[in-house]
Specification:
Elements: E1 21-28, E2 36-37, E3 41-45, E4 53-55, E5 61-69, E6 73-75, E7 83-90, E8 93-99, H1 101-112, H2 115-119, H3 121-126, E9 137-138, E10 144-149, E11 165-166, E12 174-179, H4 182-185, E13 186-187, E14 193-208, H5 210-220, E15 223-238, E16 244-248, E17 256-265, H6 266-269, E18 285-292, E19 295-303, H7 309-318, E20 385-388, E21 412-418, E22 427-442, E23 450-452
Antiparallel strand pairs: 1-14, 2-14, 3-12, 4-11, 4-14, 5-10, 5-14, 6-9, 6-13, 7-8, 7-12, 15-22, 16-21, 17-20, 17-22, 18-19, 18-21, 22-23
């Protein structure tokens, strides 16, 4: 084998100037009004028929001003708590639909962001608070503007490898964003109304020169094909005292790659005086697996013992980050703090109050009503579980391969065993299912986005 020169000594290799283009920021307003209330749906349409113009979904965020009336509202972790469901469609065809979108965002904020982000950028953008499982206090009658990165909004925002989305289609891509109810959005005992004003989707468009666009067209022959990740959410209920749950997980895709399982006590999902999204528990779970046409994945069930180490290890496998020792998280912090002014989740003084481990908190203790204070330990759980379904061929975060399991014409079931008795209460189980889709736009044909799963 011939010797090779280090890249640091290759002085002829330089950054190259990009093709002629310009980027500019736009604000897209809803087509069905400017002011919305809890539970209403915001409709936002992307522009269409814009030749040589592309949008980068890594540079998009949703901006809105929120006012609580009747009392203070404590955000359920972040301003993403206000968005209950996100749908994307075009020409009558559905591209994306994720109910419980705020619950998924809640989990990922715990598992993918650290206290530093939540106390800094996250605090200003979305009202997060360091290692605190609760978010900031939205004072009665005081408007607060939030900017929520529009991640997980559609497959366009999760392309692999990263691709810009052309805006030249004949039919617009339409988003339907359902705002959460008052009881779902956060902790409150007196709020009677939530108002959302000045709702805007802020995007950065890139417009190519005529020559650059011709170059793109010659490379792809007018056919835009984007591989991307997508999510679905399916929920079921389990009874108090149950020792086993077998639930149908109705998903039919060609490459199912990841499953996240969340248990939320019914006692905190049905009232306004609890953090219904954040309060996640194991509910006495002892082991679990996924059954696809009767075959168990993994073949030996995932055990949940004492500290939950195997549960976390399998979740990190599903996130392709088991050996990433720089990975940030903020889910396993027991809160017992004082109530200092402008508290951001990091600068509280220790009061020596013992608080339960939120990842393994028992059902009886997980009321989901307090993040913790000088006089009371926190009672918000943070449990989650995950399963990796890609084969080793994809080598984790591969940009070239996807290798999930096909569930087309298959029966998919969740099977969980539980301790039962007082350790297992009435609960809602939500399955977040990650899979690969293909988006295609034939500019020399129908010129309308189509999706294949």
């Amino acid at each position: 084998m011939a010797d090779a020169m280090a890249e640091s000594l290759n002085y002829a290799s330089q950054k190259r100037r990009a093709v002629a283009s310009r980027s500019y920021r736009v604000k897209i307003s809803p087509v069905n009004g400017q002011n919305f209330s809890a539970g209403q749906t915001v409709n936002i349409d992307l522009p269409s028929n814009m030749a040589a113009t592309y949008v980068n979904w890594n540079q998009c965020y949703l901006k809105y001003k929120v006012t609580a009336t009747g009392g203070d509202l404590v955000l359920d972790k972040a301003a993403s708590c206000f968005i209950s469901r996100v749908q994307a469609m075009t020409a009558g065809a559905q591209l994306f639909d994720c109910p419980s979108w705020n619950v998924l965002m809640n989990v990922l904020l715990d598992t993918d962001s650290g206290p530093g982000y939540k106390a800094g950028y996250g605090n200003v953008l979305m009202g997060t608070r360091g290692s605190d499982p609760a978010g900031e206090v939205l004072a009665n009658g005081v408007a607060r503007t939030y900017c929520v990165p529009f991640a997980l909004s559609s497959p366009f925002s999760m392309s692999t490898p990263h691709r810009l989305m052309p805006l030249s289609s004949s039919a617009p891509v339409q988003f339907k964003i359902t705002m959460a109810s008052i009881q779902e959005a956060g902790f409150s005992s007196a709020v009677t109304a939530l108002t959302f004003e000045e709702v805007e989707l802020v995007c950065v468009y890139t417009e190519l020169s005529s020559a650059a666009e011709q170059q793109v067209q010659s490379m792809n022959q007018g056919q835009y094909t984007i591989l991307a990740n997508s999510w679905q959410a399916i929920s079921t209920n389990m009874d108090a005292g149950a020792t086993a749950v077998t639930a149908n997980v109705g998903i039919s895709v060609s490459s199912l790659e990841r499953v996240i399982v969340v248990h939320r006590p019914t006692k905190s999902t049905t009232i306004a005086g609890a953090f219904s999204q954040s309060n996640r528990i194991d509910n006495g779970l002892t082991e679990w697996s996924l059954l696809i046409n009767g075959e168990a994945y993994p073949q030996r069930s995932i055990k949940n013992e004492n500290s939950g180490a195997e549960i976390v290890a399998e979740y990190l496998l599903s996130d392709h980050s088991l050996v990433n020792f720089d990975k940030q998280s903020s889910f396993n912090v027991a809160i017992a703090r004082d109530g200092t002014t402008n508290y951001n989740g990091l600068d509280s003084n220790s009061v020596g109050l013992e608080a339960p481990d939120p990842f393994t908190i028992a059902f009886a203790d997980a009321n989901g009503t307090t993040a913790g204070s000088a006089s009371a330990a926190g009672d918000i759980g943070s449990f989650f579980a995950g399963l990796e379904l890609e084969t080793g061929l994809s080598d984790g975060r591969s940009q070239r391969l996807y290798s999930g399991i096909s569930t087309i014409s298959s029966t998919v079931n969740y099977r969980g065993l539980y301790a039962g008795g007082s350790e297992t209460g009435a609960c809602e189980i939500t399955f977040f299912l990650g899979y690969t889709v293909m988006l295609s736009l034939n500019s020399r044909g129908t010129n309308v986005w189509a999706i294949s799963v």
